Amino acid sequence: MAAPKKGRGSSGGQGRPGRALALILIAMVALTGGMFLSGHTTPRLGIDLAGGTSITLKAKSQPGKPDAINPTNMDTAVSIIERRVNGLGVSEAEVQTQGRDNIIVNIPKGTNSKQAREQVGTTAQLYFRPVLTVTAGQATPTDTASSSASGSAKPSASPSDKETASGSKATPSAGATTQGRAVTGALKKDTSPSPSPSTSASGTPKASASPSASVDPATAELQKRFAALDCSTKAGRAKAGANAKPTDTTIACSSEGDAKYVLGPAEVSGTDVDSAKATIDQQRGMWIVQMDFTDKGSKKFQQITSKLSQQQSPMNQFAIALDGEVVSAPQVNETLSGSAEISGSFTQQSAQDLANVLSYGALPLSFDEDTVTTVTAALGGEQLQAGLIAGAIGLALVVIYLVAYYRGLAFIALLSLLVSGILTYTLMSLLGPAIGFALNLPAVCGAIVAIGITADSFIVYFERIRDEIRDGRTLRPAVERAWPRARRTILVSDFVSFLAAAVLFIVTVGKVQGFAFTLGLTTLLDVVVVFLFTKPVMTLMARTKFFSGGHPWSGLDPKRLGAKPPLRRTRRVNAPTDPKEA
User: Fold this and answer.
1) Which helix or strand (DSSP H or E) is residue 106 part of?
2) Taking Cα atoms as reference points, which of 333, 335, 345 lies closest to residue 162?
3) Cα–Cα–Cα angle for 484, 485, 486, nearest 5°?
4) Measuring CA to CA, which residue among 39, 80, 106, 37 is closest to residue 440?
5) Measured distance CA(557)–CA(554) in Å, rounded
6) What are the E-state strand segments in 123-272?
7) Which of 131, 194, 208, 546 is the most buried (most CB within 10 A)?
8) Chain segment 187-234, per-residue pLDDT in tens
9) Which of 77, 96, 79 is nearest to 87 (CA)?
10) C-alpha 110: how far from its chain's center?
């Protein structure tokens, strides 16, 4: 009597399948509810399914650096471009090298894809250069820049303070009081440029600006280029400081094209900027970009403002030049250090774009847009349709095989596949806005492959149960004895699949990562479904008459499986605990 009691105890001990089913049901309801509440009821699509823009960037040779185009610089450029685009919230942007000097950028269609395209090739070479000469063809919009060693409040300037700067040691004007706090410096750009002592009436640099009476050929060439410079056109602005080194004296245009400059060698570079952010100045009601310098950069900034504060206009200005264009050129009347602020005719978007490129650093190379291709979703839609048809055919073949071979057990397998499909779909929909996951064609292939992986787990368990029945056990004990053996096999198999997916995700780039991610996700879900759904449902079905009685259509008929009752009677004869055998 002890053996049957032990069997009932083990069966009862294994048994609270309702808890596991309730747990997975709660998870399904929570994920589905979250999907509808978030408004993301469909997975986010990749560029091959949703369409988008593909940009080919070609690296340009650097003056004086014949070996600048190398794998290290190209990989660095890829990393920076990827961070810039992802910083704008663009999903599934693909950035990868092609050949020796090309970078391919695929940007899916989205709300920020236009801004991402504008930033992918922006070199973001930032330099603070002293202004030697400035001339303007029309009124220049007011630009201001401020710097402070602390985050203290700025005083408001009175009208009499125009074109001046006050610092922490300056005496505040009538309209500005310190109130016991350090006063931040406010640097103001000349709002009405006029020919200065260093410029002629025509706006060209005078020879007197040179230390010597004679003009050397390099200075003469610079004067000639400055006189011929037309900043009113985009082409003219692009050619202004082309191929100029940081240590060169060069010419440049304002970003609006209404002023042109002769600039001295760079004193501070973008690498000296620690961070940048776009914010709105509440006092002036305008968007600004705030920059924090590194310790080294702060010292450099202090040195250049110390030198410029002793010069006369316009040589007391420093130009903030981004990719050869002057974003701002404020005047300096005293030594400043700490953080800097760029302001002007910024919109919210332009301020955020500038802060974004400054935060993630300058590209080590300059690039030209070689080709820009618009990818339509039509081709991807056709491929997706073909892939879904292939998946449907594969699923139909799996169903036919399960019904023909496992009969009633096919019902449990199909329910498990349905649960796995619901979990996969809801997670893909939620992972789009959460981590930027986008469904592309390789990811669809990964989901189709997962059908086979999930079905394989069911088959392993069903075959273990059948083996136990062939050994002469009834269904309920067979279900429980088969589970530990099947569980080990399923875990090992899924571990191998997940490991392969993880390695593939790490060592590959682009769309192949979508395949690896989906394969890994569905493999994990296979373990969850088998443990929390398939096994509990099988335990409940074993208690029904249809399955436990060995109905011919249950898939567990002892006669069809080759179980022999004499084998069970023989075991009872040999059992020493049976008192009736004599």
Assistant:
1) strand 102-108
2) 333
3) 95
4) 106
5) 7
6) 126-136, 144-148, 185-188, 250-254, 259-263, 268-269
7) 131
8) 333 333 433 434 433 334 443 444 444 567 778 888 888 888 888 887
9) 79
10) 14
Of the candidates 115, 107, 114, 112, which has an alpha carbon nearest to the alpha carbon of residue 375?
Answer: 107
Look at the block and give the residue holding tokens 């900043």: 231
pLDDT tens for each residue of 118-127? 667 665 677 8
User: What's the rounded Cα separation, in Å, for the pair 292 and 294?
Assistant: 7
Q: What tokens does 78 get?
A: 């890829």
- Helix, coil or strand: residue 293: strand
- How many Å apart are CA 82 and CA 106, to the nearest integer? 10
Cα–Cα dist 443/460, whole Å? 26
**Range from 68-82, 107-121, 172-186 carrying the lowest mean pLDDT:** 172-186
Measured from the Cβ of residue 397, the count of other Cβ atoms closer than 10 Å reads: 10
- Let me know: does 188 contact 344? Beta carbons within 8 Å: no
Classify strands 144-148 and 185-188 as parallel, antiparallel or unpaired.
antiparallel
Quickly state the pLDDT bin for 7 (edges 50, 70, 90): very low
Exposed e or buried b per residue across 86-116, where buried means at least 16 C-beta atoms within 10 angstroms of its C-beta: bbbebbbbbbebeeebbbbbbbbbbebbebb
Q: How many residues are present in the chain?
A: 582
Give the DSSP letter string of 37-81: HHT--SPPB-HHHH-EEEEEEEEEPBTTBTT-SSHHHHHHHHHHH
The owner of tokens 């590959």 is: 508
For residue 368, the 8-state DSSP code is E
Q: Which amino acid is at 350?
A: S
Nearest to 252 by CA among 357, 142, 131, 344: 131
Q: How far apart are the C-alpha atoms of 256 and 275, rounded to whole Å?
A: 25
More confident residue, 527 or 47: 527
| DSSP-assigned letter for residue 408 | T
Residue where the block lists tokens 């089913």:
21
Let me know if 370 is exposed, middle or buried by CB neighbors in 10 A (0-12, 13-18, 19+): middle
Distance between CA atoms of 211 and 14, rounded to whole angstroms?
95
Task: Name the nearest CA neighbour of 226 among 260, 181, 179.
Answer: 260
Give the full edge-to-edge strand order of the sheet including 185-188: 185-188, 144-148, 339-343, 286-293, 273-281
Measure Cα distances from 398 to 134, 385, 453, 459 in Å: 77, 20, 11, 11
